[in-house]
Specification:
By secondary structure, the chain is of the alpha+beta class. Helix content is about 15%, strand content about 35%.
């Protein structure tokens, strides 16, 4: 019986997330940055739960950006993401719908070409997402900057200070 309930919850969880933001969420931080699109990356499932690999939804397709400059940062309270500094990586889920994210955002992400410079706004919310309290980071704005604007943007450091985006490969 417990297994059936667990499988039912696992099946319904993505449905709860593919919705607009509910009213009972709190904005923790907001970052508007100018960043360079590095490309898409397929992140595989690493078989960490009993639902892996076919029912877990751990595999992801992410869009990777390297932050060039931070244009606006807001952190109204004690908690929330830190200010994105030049050289940091910004990773955006390009496969799943994120609550609070515009419907056309996945299409905009798939249309990007590596090397393009974009202005991107990502918000950090925390709240009740259908019975589950969790953080959510929707991208609310994504604009490709014109080539002329790229000359004004300083280049990012070659070695970012944040290496959290790197995934250690599993031995075969």
């Amino acid at each position: 019986m417990k297994k059936k309930i667990f499988l039912l919850l696992a099946a319904l969880l993505p449905v709860a997330f593919a919705a607009p933001l509910p009213e009972n969420v709190e904005l923790l931080a907001s970052n508007t940055v100018v960043a360079q699109f590095l490309g898409m990356q397929e992140r595989p499932c690493y078989f960490r739960t009993a639902l892996c690999p076919d029912r877990c939804d751990h595999a992801a397709k992410v869009a990777q950006f390297r932050v060039l400059t931070n244009e606006a940062y807001e952190k109204p309270g004690k908690y929330g993401d830190d200010k994105a500094a030049a050289g940091n990586m910004l990773v955006v889920d390009a496969r799943n719908d994120v609550p609070g994210q515009p419907d056309d955002m996945r299409q905009k992400l798939s249309d990007l070409k590596p090397g393009q410079i974009v202005r991107i706004t990502q918000k950090h919310y925390y709240g009740d997402m259908g019975g589950v309290h969790m953080p959510v980071r929707p991208v609310t704005q994504l604009d490709v900057l014109k080539n002329g604007a790229c000359e004004e943007i300083p280049s990012a450091p070659k070695d970012p200070a944040n290496h959290d985006h790197e995934v250690m490969p599993l031995p075969l």
